[in-house]
Write a structure and sequence with these properties.
- This protein is of the alpha+beta class.
- It has three domains: about 5-50; about 70-170; about 180-320, Glucose Permease (Domain IIA), CATH 2.70.70.10.
- The chain has five helices and 14 strands.
- The chain has helices at about 25-50, 55-100, 105-110, 130-170, 305-320, and strands spanning about 5-10, 15-20, 180-185, 185-190, 195-200, 205, 210-215, 220-225, 230-240, 245-255, 260-265, 270, 280-290, 295.
- Strands 3, 6, 7, 8, 9, 10, 11, 12, 13 and 14 form a ten-stranded antiparallel sheet that branches. A two-stranded antiparallel sheet has the order 1-2.
- It starts with 6 loop residues before the first strand and ends in a 6-residue tail after the last helix.
Length: about 325
């Protein structure tokens, strides 16, 4: 296409003069066109980036979404596990520690909170959504870990208490020492040999000579010998339970029953008899504390008999006032 020339009227020469662009004007015009082109290109590129993503970007976005969903799922599972652990902790506090007479865990310790205003600053470099999820998960995991450690320590303590309690229960003098009715109870009784009323510090059981006599709780033989008004007797120390039991007027001490030997509840200690200050064959049985104070043995028999049998034993102990020793 032929170039189009531009003319203007020159008043001085009274003629039309062709307009010729200066180099400066040409440069400015070209620069303006190029600048407009660059702006248009940048705008189009940005717009395309917002609409069209590369396969790598799409994969990363999908991966991030999957990770967020997984974190949210883990978050819920942590809540469920924490809830179960809290229920175990409540049972520990309200039942086990009461049964074993253990000191309760204080509320401050039981809360096991995570300290500090921002305990996880390393998550702040991520986006707000990701940072919030990571922080929440980390907080819950830390709390769960502390709960587990606290509960583990608690159960270790309860285990030790249970073992000690089990030993204590096994040492309690809780069964009848011989098969026979009670002929005299605990308290002031008339002594048939001394002919005076005095304190009877135990129970007398009717038992023909040679009736087997059994240990009423686990313990250690403290004495097994003859001497004084008790005649032939055996003393058993139940140290953890805090008692000593005495079995007196025996006709014979069983083999192996010697000072320092350990025995179990139900082990044979000897055989009933009529030795020492005794009027007739029977077993004299005592329960003392470790300081030597006499306790009423009738109260220790309750766990080993039915309520009706215990009522019968109480009546026998209370209705008899005459001693055989």
């Amino acid at each position: 296409m032929p170039k189009t020339n531009t003319y203007i009227f020159d008043n001085e020469s009274c003629s039309f003069v062709e307009v010729v662009d200066s180099r400066r004007k040409i440069f400015v015009r070209v620069s303006a066109i190029l600048l407009i082109g660059l702006v248009v290109a940048a705008t189009l590129t940005w717009g395309l980036d917002q609409v069209v993503q590369s396969p790598q970007e799409v994969a990363l976005l999908d991966e991030n979404e999957a990770l967020q969903r997984q974190l949210e799922s883990v978050n819920k599972r942590i809540d469920n596990v924490t809830g179960d652990l809290m229920a175990i902790r409540d049972t520990d506090q309200d039942l086990y520690r009461v049964l074993f007479n253990a000191k309760t865990i204080s509320d401050d310790v039981a809360q096991v909170g995570v300290g500090g205003s921002d305990p996880y600053p390393e998550f702040s470099r991520f986006g707000s959504t990701t940072s919030d999820i990571l922080t929440e998960n980390a907080t819950k995991i830390d709390r769960l870990e502390r709960l587990l450690l606290l509960q583990n320590d608690s159960y270790r303590e309860l285990k030790d208490l249970a073992a000690s309690h089990s030993i204590q229960l096994s040492q309690m003098p809780a069964i009848q020492p011989v098969n026979g009715r009670i002929t005299s109870g605990f308290g002031i009784r008339f002594h048939p040999v001394l002919k005076v009323s005095r304190m009877h510090p135990g129970l007398d059981f009717h038992a023909p000579v040679g009736s087997p006599v059994f240990a009423t709780g686990d313990g250690v033989i403290k004495d097994a010998k003859s001497g004084g008004g008790l005649g032939r007797f055996v003393k058993v120390e139940h140290k953890i339970a805090g008692y000593v039991t005495v079995f007196a007027h025996l006709s014979k001490i069983a083999p192996g029953i010697r000072r320092g030997n350990k025995i179990k509840r139900g082990d044979l200690l000897g055989y009933s008899g009529n030795t020492g200050l005794s009027e007739a064959p029977h077993l004299h049985y005592e329960v003392r504390d470790l300081d030597g104070k006499s306790l009423n043995p009738i109260y220790f028999l309750a766990p080993s008999v039915t309520p009706s049998e215990y009522e019968r034993l109480l009546k026998e102990a209370e209705s008899t006032t005459f001693l055989f020793d």
